[in-house]
Design goal:
With about 290 residues, the protein is mostly helical.
């Protein structure tokens, strides 16, 4: 895996993550913890031949479980107790979190005004992509007036977990205590097992069809598998602030792909979101 092209690696991870909404829609009848558990187990399979590289410290294993299991568990709890669209938007605070928290986790990294402006522009673009016409019709006050939902708390926590997991992984690597990218397979295997255990405790059993299994395998090999390996390699070799800003392409690409698959027309909001997010990515890439 080429370590000299972190932008390419990050974009490859983003491209895979953009398919998650479509796959999730097709599998919306499957309990989310069951879905995450099976997909994470499948996603770990390509790393099984490299199991010798799974000999990591307990700190690295704890970090991997914290990131992969903690993020998905809290995100699914958020979607259970808050409106899905708004909870998803809160969850997409994680790219902003990576940018803002980078100086706290990484030695020698400073937050510039350019990074901050780019990160905020990216989040606004993500909000426009996700909320679209609802944002135009009612504005931010109208959306806020819908009231508080307890699910926003785990949504915000999931955003913090993914941002801090990403930064702590890079910090361990810089300190010479990092783990090989192949160890993501171990993290996925353990996290998948924990997700299935939570499914058994919290969700009703469901019968799965052959089509369900095929789609879950695709999800495991893509957005809940290969994407994690690519993301880890990108962060270890690139600037976390710029990659965080670039990550706002994820909700935009996901929304566009979902519209194409469902036959919905592209709207003004997608065009505006594209300009904001691409502008933020260009601005962030030029910041030092």
């Amino acid at each position: 895996m080429p370590s000299k092209s972190p932008t390419f690696l990050a974009l490859a991870a983003i491209a895979l993550w953009s398919s998650l909404a479509v796959l999730g829609t097709l599998l919306s009848h499957v309990p989310p913890l069951l879905l995450a558990g099976i997909a994470l187990l499948v996603g770990s399979v390509p790393a099984w031949p490299f199991f010798r590289q799974w000999r990591v410290t307990w700190q690295a294993l704890a970090l991997g479980i914290y990131g992969l299991f903690g993020y998905h568990f809290l995100l699914f709890m958020a979607l259970r107790y808050a409106p899905a669209v708004e909870a998803n938007l809160v969850n997409y605070l994680w790219p902003l979190g990576i940018v803002l928290m980078a100086p706290l986790f990484l030695p020698g990294v400073k937050l510039t005004a350019t990074h901050l402006i780019a990160a905020c522009a990216g989040f606004i673009g993500a909000a426009v992509a996700i909320l679209g016409d609802a944002l135009l019709a009612s504005g931010v006050p109208g959306l806020v007036s819908k009231g508080f939902a307890w699910g926003y708390i785990p949504a915000a926590a999931s955003a913090f977990i993914w941002a801090s997991y990403s930064l702590m992984g890079k910090r361990m690597s810089l300190a010479g205590r990092g783990f090989p990218t192949a160890a993501i397979g171990l993290f996925g295997l353990v996290s998948g097992g924990l997700s299935l255990a939570c499914h058994a405790l919290l969700e009703a059993p469901v019968a799965l069809t052959g089509r369900d299994w095929l789609l879950m395998v695709l999800m495991g090999l893509g957005p809940l598998g290969a994407a994690f390996f690519l993301w880890d390699a990108a962060l270890k070799s690139g600037d976390a602030r710029n990659i965080g800003i670039l990550s706002y392409v994820t909700p935009l690409a996901s929304t566009v792909l979902l519209m194409i698959v469902t036959g919905r027309p592209l709207t003004w909001g997608i065009g505006l979101a594209t300009l904001l997010i691409l502008g933020a990515a260009v601005l962030g890439s030029r910041a030092r």
